[in-house]
Specification:
The complex is a heterodimer of chains A (111) and B (494).
Chain A lengths: L5 H4 L11 H10 L6 H18 L34 H5 L5 E2 L2 E2 L7
Antiparallel strand pairs in A: 1-2
Chain B lengths: L8 H5 L3 H10 L4 H19 L2 E4 L1 H16 L11 E5 L26 H8 L3 E6 L33 H8 L5 E6 L5 H7 L2 E4 L19 E6 L2 H11 L29 E5 L9 H16 L3 E5 L7 H16 L18 H12 L2 H14 L5 H21 L5 E5 L15 H5 L6 H6 L3 E9 L2 E8 L5 H14 L10
Parallel strand pairs in B: 2-3, 2-4, 7-8, 7-9
Antiparallel strand pairs in B: 1-3, 4-6, 5-6, 5-10, 9-11, 10-11
Helix pairs in contact in B: 3-4, 8-16, 10-12, 10-13
The chains are: A mainly alpha (111), B alpha/beta (494).
Chain lengths: 111, 494
Amino acid sequence: MAGLWNGLILADELTTPDLTVDDVRHIAALTRLGLSDDEVETMRGQLSSILKVFESLQQVDTEGVEPTGHTTDVRTVLREDEAAESLQRDGILKNAPESEAGFVKVRPILG
Amino acid sequence: MVNSEATNGSNLTGLTAHEAQEFLTSGKVSSVELTEAVLARVDELEPQIHSYITVTREEALAAARTADEARSAGNAEGPLAGIPVMVKDNLSTEGVPTTAGSKILLGYTPPYDAHVVSQLRSGGAIIIGKGNLDEFAMGSSTEHSAFGATRNPWDTDRVPGGSSGGPAAGVAASECFISLGSDTGGSIRQPAALCGIVGMKPTYGLVSRYGLIAFGSSLDQIGPFSRDVRDTADTLSVISGHDRRDSTSINAPGQDFASALTGDITGMRLGVPSEYLVDGMEPGVTAAFEKSLETLEAMGATVEEVSLPLTDHALAVYYIIAPSEASANLARFDGFKYGNAVNDVPTAWDVMDQTREKGFGSEVKRRILIGAYALSAGYYDAYYKKAQQVRTLIIREFAQTFEKFDALVTPTSPTVAFMAGERMDDPVAMYLSDVCTIPVNIAGLPAISVPGGMSEGLPVGLQFIGPQMGDGTVLKIAHAYEQATEWHRLKPTL
């Protein structure tokens, strides 16, 4: 029986290099995700193992194959441009940690 | 069959929804009595099982009173009228906190209902509470919930599966009649298998995702859990149908899925994909599966082995696409718009960094990082685009297979329920829990898991996979199999 576990069994023989601490910090910064030093090290090891699993895809010939974004035939859906009821502002603003004068309030972006 | 003592509380809660509906119709019980019986069961079992994050006791009783009044006035229609239902806590409920199992959404109360919740309410269903899940539906054991793990009703030292472990355990423990979950890579079918109940992932687009807190938008689909196939068919009829608020919603007329349940599968062609019988499959699961194939053949179906070689790459495709979509979807949790924020910091950037650091658990962080890496400059073609191309090939391979077969049959999970804690330190081992369910989401197909045997006292699930829009077909086969076996009648001792 072939196995879905093949990719993993092969993992140690594969060539994808392990991520570095700097790689992990770079991705974390891209996603605005704070990480402690311990978390960076744990993630470095775990993400490196996971990336090795992905290497099996390089065996598949995808020359000229269109990528699939989603699986239904639904294409761009149009509707009439008509005004309609939307959610009430109060219901939305009461979930915001801070709001003022009908707006969501945020800390300074610049400076 | 229902006996004359069934109107006392503990027997009431063990009925299927359609049996309970007969009791309601004949006036043997009221919806208030049914709801009170379920709430008493919840009070008794929750310390052991923890299938709920929130129980909406007062709202449920008020809805049950309304349902009883409607019935007295002759306005109780549909299979779920007056029936207590649980929904997974990533489904938005107006006025009821919705956490997605995450600390980052503590304090968030949606100002609107998910489409499926509106459908349940207009069908007269009683929403009894919000089911526990792995944080943002990322996990296979419900141990990644920020609000504590759910345990398996068959053995409380074991996991119920995940990510919809709360909705699955709730139905298995008779803490509700029906529940709704979401399935991105197996999150309905795998816990249904591990808890010994029915769980279905419909065709992608059949059920509107409006109001579902998104994980992997091209993979996510909402579906039912129940104690028999008839209840799943009835629930799917209630929640499916076109909704313009979900741009991937299929614009097709509503269906009565119960009409597909003829009990006759004579001459139907079933394929057994050899790649799903993985090396690590437990002997008890293999034995139960082989027995099920004999049953299906004895019922007049043809069963034939088939090969889908690209299945071997499905796990890699999934663990690129799902985290990529998740890293984009979870960008909205920035600490400004809703939920639990770290606000006593100088700049907006600090709010984002620290809210997300403190609000997300480790599995969610791991997936955001994988996704961002796969999408980042220099890696996009090698990971994300490559995965989407292989996805196309997987879809084609399934389509070719369904030219020769009406449905595929596989085990749902390579193992029975595993011990709590067993896979928590090894993400890759946890990911392997879904090897038999993930390919279905990649291709957007319908699939159902039904009780298909026991191994060492624990339930084994049997999965039927159909072609796109073949939801009625998989329900029909699952129902016929169920009627020919007794596995769905077994209940955990609690």
